[in-house]
């Protein structure tokens, strides 16, 4: 589908299948079209070309509240009424979503806000507001949950707690679509990655799929017995770039398909070797690779 604003394609001829129960990370530069894609999925905006089905239905079709109630959304910047408490806020959203008010306390407990339930939202920290945002997204026990940059501004402990909740939801079979710029944490927490650039989808798959497609070099750090770095460097096979970092450390760069051969060679011919550390391309490396102009989808 394509969505155009003021003559510019915010989402440009993009096709995407998300399976039930999949957790998908949407990555892309500022203005790549991630939020627009989420709004298309939610039915908040309609595509100018193409179409979209979510849970088998057109999300923006008038009167289809049943489908919309099965979607949860945590926007990038959620606004609350500051004069209301967390419990009052959640009850307000629960009425809109026709979720039983008697269940709100359970949802507040799930996001760790029970103790602050009766505190005014204006007195909440950024992390507490974010958790309240997640609580409202969980109303209606959604089958599909859209989280737009949900961990921005959260400390490492809260991020971990946040992803623990996301994992539980995944285990319950909820489909999760999450947009973020926090690549390191996504690497550990999402199964499928979708990379957007200027409204287009430029790569998608698991991190292993993306590694295979990008075929970036692998880095291996070798640690030898003290003073044996130079002797070890002489035994490095042809076609492998070798950089000495000190008298007992070497950094190798090699094509990924040679990884096993080179490790086998080192283990049989370099008795001075003390330790080996293999660094596969990270999600950040892959993201930078695919964002480069000229990489074909
Ligand atoms: N309501 C709108 N009216 C006009 N242009 C819009 C509107 N919403 C988004 N755009 C434009 O569409 C493009 C994609 O914006 P979008 O917010 O989807 O990007 P994003 O990937 O979510 O960015 P970020 O990472 O900065 O949040 C941008 O050029 C933006 O200016």
From TrEMBL:
The keyword Lyase does not apply. Residues 2-223 form the ABC transporter domain. It comes from the Bacteria. SUPFAM superfamilies: P-loop containing nucleoside triphosphate hydrolases. Keywords: ATP-binding, Nucleotide-binding, Transport. GO terms for molecular function: ATP binding; ATP hydrolysis activity. Gene3D superfamilies: P-loop containing nucleotide triphosphate hydrolases (3.40.50.300). Transmembrane segments: none annotated. It holds the Pfam family ABC_tran. InterPro entries: AAA+_ATPase (IPR003593), ABC_transporter-like_ATP-bd (IPR003439), ABC_transporter-like_CS (IPR017871), ABC_Transporter_VariousFunc (IPR051782), P-loop_NTPase (IPR027417). The keyword ATP-binding applies. PANTHER family: ABC TRANSPORTER ATP-BINDING PROTEIN ALBC-RELATED (PTHR42939). This is ABC transporter domain-containing protein. It comes from Thalassospira alkalitolerans. The lineage of its organism: Bacteria, Pseudomonadati, Pseudomonadota, Alphaproteobacteria, Rhodospirillales.
